[in-house]
Amino acid sequence: STLSYTDFIPVNNTNIFIHEMNLNVIDFVNEKDSLQFTVNDLTFNDGKNIYLEQCSALFKATDNKLELSSVNLKTHNSTVNNLKITVEYQDSVDVKENMNFDIQLSNSVVDFAELSSIFPQLKGMDETVQCSGHIFGNLNDLKGKDLTLRAGRNTNAILDFYINDITDTENMYLFLDLKRLETTFNDLESFKLPYASKTRTLD
Fold this sequence. Notes:
Blueprint: E1 2-5, E2 14-17, E3 19-30, E4 34-45, E5 51-52, E6 54-62, E7 65-74, E8 79-89, H1 95-98, E9 99-111, H2 112-115, E10 128-138, E11 141-151, E12 155-164, E13 173-182, H3 185-190
């Protein structure tokens, strides 16, 4: 089977080809203006970089709102715990202005090599990061609150951030409020930025 994921940033869609998908859904309720169900278990293999070993979640959709809560999933290299994603949208073609995200993540491990299969803009970043925190806003006005990051051998950070127009990496404005940062020169030298960046390292 084929799952087509639409990336609204580039012109072309990103296609993810799924093999060996297994889905177990319970508590399915479809009412006049809402749909909800529980994903008891979901597994699949894209044949390349992502093998979803386990996933469970609560799903609810209304006219202008999608909500995924109690999301727990595991791949070969990533583990996501108690993720909650809320997407609110209006009837408009301007996705950047009229689609608002709210993402709350408990302590989890994210492998950027796997993530780049879904978000090609991240290709080239092979780091595995432990993270938690709160991200909210839209593509024109994105904020992060109390983000905790652990990467490399000795890098730890707690921060807030603000990004204006994440779709334009050449001209976007990024503000970081570092509440805590511990790292080493060896870690900084080993971190790789995406292939699309003007520079690949933090030297």
